[in-house]
Design a protein that fits this description.
2 domains; Alpha-Beta Plaits; 7 strands; alpha+beta; Arc Repressor Mutant, subunit A
């Protein structure tokens, strides 16, 4: 890990403390490739990207495009996640963890305590993920929590 100067460290800390946690989806792709995938010219793609950027649906930079929370909302996708607490049989943990990695979750963490895994999923995918979890050998119990809104 590179050592930061005092000022760089101060800036990074300020950005972190004053920043707002958001959900974004980042695509690292060349615009030529994206235009080809959509079957349009690069110029047409730029017109669409500019409009989406002006609406704050995306952020663009060198080699990346972020879909913002407003963009997710325009697609009908909620940016408020659901959380699933998962209890796993001790003898089946390795198998269960490998299967959980295959699920469409935003993040999954091994945790200590009464449960073994905390999975964060898009609210719209909660039912699908719960169905898949129920078929994984070694999953003993799940508890789901749906967020209402972010308070920070």
């Amino acid at each position: 890990m590179e050592t930061l100067t005092r000022r760089s460290s101060q800036l990074l800390r300020t950005l972190y403390e004053q920043g707002k946690s958001t959900s974004t989806y980042t695509l690292h792709s060349k615009q030529d490739e994206l235009a080809k995938q959509l079957g349009i010219s690069r110029q047409a793609l730029n017109v669409h990207l500019r409009r989406l950027r002006d609406l704050n649906y995306i952020r663009t930079g060198r080699g990346f495009i972020d879909v913002t929370e407003q963009g997710l909302s325009a697609l009908g996708i909620s940016s408020t996640p659901a959380f699933i607490l998962i209890k796993v049989s001790p003898l089946k943990r390795s198998h269960a963890y490998e299967k959980i990695k295959e699920l469409t979750v935003q993040r999954a963490f091994r945790i200590a305590g009464d449960v073994d895994v905390l999975a964060m999923v898009e609210g719209e995918k909660l039912d699908e993920v719960l169905k898949r979890l129920s078929s994984i050998d070694g999953i003993q119990d799940t508890k789901s929590y749906v967020t209402i809104e972010a308070i920070r």
